[in-house]
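--- STAGE predict ---
source: upstream dedup step, 1 unique chain passed
mode: sequence only
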Amino acid sequence: MKSSWDNKEAKKCGNNLLKMRVYTSHLLGKEEDLVMHGGGNTSVKIREQNIFGESEDILYVKGSGWDLATIEAPGFTPVKLSALHQLAQLALLSDMDMVKYQRMAVTDPSAPNPSVEAILHGIIPFTFVDHTHADAVVTITNTPGGRKRIEEIYGDRMLIIPYVMPGFILAKTIYQMTRNIDWTSVDGMILLNHGVFTFDDDPKKSYEKMIGVVTKAERYLKRKGALPVKGAKPSKPNYIRLAEIRNRVSEMTGKPVLAKLDQSRASVAFSKLKNVKSISNRGPITPDHIIRTKRVPVCFTKNYTRDLEKFESAYDQYFEKYSRGEQKLDVAPRWGILPGIGTLSFGPTIKHVRIIEDIARHTKKAISQAEHLGGWRALGQKELFEMEYWSLEQAKLKKAGPSKTLQGKIAVVTGAASGIGKACIASLVNEGAVVAALDIDRKIKSLFTQPGILALQCDVTKQKDVDKCIERIVEAYGGIDYLITNAGIFPKSARIADMDHDVWEKSMAINVTSHQRILQSCVPFLELGFDPAVVIIGSKNVPAPGPGASAYSVAKAGLTQLGRVAALELGSKGIRVNIIHPNAVYDTGIWTDEVLKARADQYGLSIEEYKTNNVLKTEVKSRDVADLAVAMLGPLFSKITGAQLPVDGGNDRVI
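--- STAGE serialize ---
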């Protein structure tokens, strides 16, 4: 690992210690091999005047909920250093009381709660303190004779701390161990099975001590031949099986979850190890990870149902053995191994899934490296249970607010690059769903780049394109719960006597046949979805056609009939199918200026009059249709199928 220190950037901080703390925290946070997703913590001690003009020493320590990679000055909580020293001298202090008394010592009421390691940061007598969960170091400690290896690597320049729970117990242990030491004689501390502390009055030295500590561990691993497994090509997954696994894990979780397949070469190589089930079943890299990933993954065989039943049974036994009245968490795994195929990560949101996937990736690397050093050995079940059911984590569970209505749900939208389809994407994401956005327009890939939206170029008239997209969706999310089938065109007006054969065929292919194709391809996955539903975007032209629009009207009428039959056929499988008939929605791709003017002229109206030519004299927009479509997917319409609803401002011909 190399130092990323930049003198020019550092000089921008001037003499402002807090700015410097932000800068060096970013240096640490950007290195995934040091900290991941909120892990680690940093601090700086600053002497400043309070409101009464008195000078006091303040510890600015990373606040709860902040990430070192992105933390800014408000993310550091100011705590009176004298209070932290007093707390360290107490014989006993529960973690809940520790949080309370640390909070009482905070000098800014608007600041977040200080890190649970605030007392430990406070008793280390240096201005800057850095703490990470460096993979290379913890990998070495998680092997037979790990402590001896650490002593061999670092000699007497690092204090070695046996594993104890984070929080007050850890701070008290180190306080007692260091009362009579010369702190200048060491460069830092290694907490077995946990991480690394470095410190100095100079921010650069503290940071580069951390880099040096990790580099020594990396070189040791390389010298011992402890390299990650080489990459391998994956076998093709069974996509229905992936959806079945996602379905069962969701049931175990008690709510819908996403399931993301990782087929990176390193992940596949790990999944192909002969002893993968044994070595992956020994525990996480650090206890901190168990809060995200649980103690172990599930290793799948051909009988995934039995595998998950065994996982559930083992978790029940684990809980019953160590529980002392805690609130039981769900019994579902957070990640799994598909031998020869890769790994799966499970979570309620795309953010959760990505965090678990990242941690799993580092875990797989660390396990494979540790196997070269005599075998992977994590902490025992008792210690891991204490961390998983830590009182502070239990308190967070009780405070957790309600999730969004469609959280964990997976939706597919066709015709997603503009108009109603694009509006549906926004509405679905707003309600918490992840979405696959399909469109023939290649701009779809640049139109949606945010997490939780899988943008796919797809010609829905081609079965090969549709099949490929379905596979991508299942790989990314694990299945399909919702389908909004919206792709369509509005052919140029022509009377039947003048109809061009190619125009007619194209309208039928896109406006009806493509919908049948995407629906047919989605049905096997919808059957495994949660509260599955389909919304078909029809047209006012079905109940009230107009002259010159036969190619469009007939296709939409056929599409409506397809939806009615689908409602009859799929109802027994719990799949709802409803139809929306929009009218005069002019912010869509099918309404070009040319078409709009032609239609207005046909009725002898101005364009503005044509746009509001309804009972309510209002313009209907794509968002209006999208909001209804998403509502029809949700619980409000849970007992409705086969319905046809107009969104048209009131059309007198329809009424």
